[in-house]
Write a structure and sequence with these properties.
GO terms for molecular function: cysteine desulfurase activity; selenocysteine lyase activity. The protein is α/β, with parallel strands linked by helices and 438 residues long. 37% of the residues lie in helices and 16% in strands. The N and C termini lie far apart (54 Å).
Length: 438
């Protein structure tokens, strides 16, 4: 009898042939830049869109365009049905209930929605159930040193408005969260713990289950920035156990202008609204208003209808491709990036070393050459990467840098593109005359 071992299990990953087939769905990739085939390695900033997503928005405007939740005519019913069907499809994609998905413009708005809702619970007279979100002087908010500005500044402002204290979990030299410090910082005064699932700079994938367990021990609410995980990894918010999660459509094959706030239904229904106006009310008098339950409670005004529909199409595209296979392929590309960059003289790779789990991205510093110059050098060769502080200035400061260059992959990138990128990076220092710098 043959005993199966982990190493003998079939690998879960896209194949090179499947990736080439996927690329046919992305017409933007089939072009030249500066006389070179485009190698798009900037999906960590924004992803490209498949034809099915592009066509879904056009089809909505050609066949169903009307305001949702506001009309009784045929087009309005069709638009509303498509809009709410998209919510259900997206909820299924992340393992949430349909009423637990709130449409926002992006993840930044979703995080601000939470921060301002908690702020609204902290002032004036609110419903008794909303008192659970109220913050008082001396209460604590906890974030991490690796956060994107979108998951830092809203909490800074919430602390300023309420008198709460903002603290952060530092990172180790290896680019991981200091879990001992996390355990020490989480205490009975901690009301909110907001942290990223995966770092957009380091590629680090954080141990969400452990962090949630630490927060639950002291009764703190957890807010997960899932912008870099939902597009690239299988994510089930119920299995993760987080109270809230946010992500953006444009990083997962969908259009700009659409994002998602997930929240446990009992929490969303208890939270005071952030934006107020039409479509989120039960009744209005000249003196006061009553509000609908979630998710409509947080969706005032005309909604992002075509974008939400397109986001659901994008989620279906990812599901049909297979999130586990996508994650497997990107893990390969991420390791190829790290190993290749680490072998080059004068290159410092940020985040986990080769062999340690990471997303399919790598940020790095070239000794003696500014990141912007590196980016321009690569762009001249048709290779698109991100340069700058990646909306993570405190993290770069911790690493002793002002900027870095980041290559980030997705399901449509090939090993040949990664190798082309590595070859180009190997030529940077010589081109700028700093070959002797270590």
């Amino acid at each position: 009898m043959t005993v199966s071992t982990p190493s003998s299990q079939p690998e879960i990953s896209l194949t090179a042939k499947e990736v080439l087939h996927i690329r046919n769905d992305f017409p933007i990739l089939d072009q030249a830049v500066n006389g070179h085939p485009l190698a798009y390695l900037d999906s960590g900033a924004t992803s490209q869109k498949p034809l099915s997503v592009l066509e879904s928005e056009q089809e909505f405007y050609e066949q169903r365009n009307a305001a949702v939740h506001r009309g009784a005519h045929w087009l309005a019913v069709e638009a509303t049905d498509a809009f709410e069907a998209a919510r259900g499809q997206l909820a299924a994609f992340i393992g949430a209930g349909e009423a637990e998905v709130v449409w926002t413009s992006n993840a930044t708005e979703a995080l601000n929605l939470l921060a301002y809702s908690f702020s609204n619970a902290s002032v004036g007279t609110v419903a008794p159930e909303a008192q659970a979100f109220a913050l008082r002087p001396g209460d604590e908010l906890l974030v991490t040193e690796m956060e994107h500005h979108a998951n830092l500044i809203p909490w800074q402002e919430l602390a300023r408005r309420t008198g709460a204290v903002l603290k952060y979990v530092p990172i180790t030299d290896a680019g991981a969260l200091d879990m001992d410090r996390a355990a020490a910082l989480l205490n009975e005064r901690t009301k909110v713990f907001a942290f990223s699932h995966a770092s957009n700079v380091l590629g680090t994938v954080n141990p969400v289950a452990q962090l949630v367990a630490l927060a639950r021990r002291v009764g703190a609410l957890t807010v997960l920035d899932a912008c870099q995980s939902v597009p690239h990894l299988p994510v089930d918010v119920k299995a993760l156990g987080v109270d809230f999660a946010v992500f953006s459509g444009h990083k997962m094959l969908a259009p700009t202008g659409i994002g998602v706030l997930y929240g446990r239904s009992e929490l969303l229904d208890a939270m005071p609204p952030f934006l107020t106006g039409g479509s989120m009310i039960t009744s209005v008098s000249m003196e006061q208003a009553g509000y609908l339950p979630a998710p409509q409670r947080f969706e005032a005004g005309t909604q992002r209808i075509s974008q939400a529909i397109a986001l659901a199409v994008a989620a279906n595209y990812l599901s049909e491709t297979g999130m586990a296979k996508i994650a497997g392929w990107e893990a390969k590309l991420g390791q190829r990036l790290v190993r290749g960059l680490s072998a080059l003289p004068g290159i410092r790779v940020l985040g986990p070393e080769a062999g340690v789990e990471r997303l399919g991205l790598a940020a790095f510093d070239v000794a003696g050459v500014h990141a912007h110059d590196v980016g321009q050098f690569l762009d001249d060769r048709g290779i698109a990467v991100r340069v700058g502080h990646h909306c993570a200035q405190p993290l770069h400061r911790r690493l002793g840098l002002t900027a870095s260059t980041r290559a980030s992959t997705y399901l449509y990138n090939t090993e040949a593109e990664v190798d082309r990128f590595l070859q180009a990076v190997s030529e940077v220092r010589g081109y700028f005359g700093v070959s002797g710098v270590r």
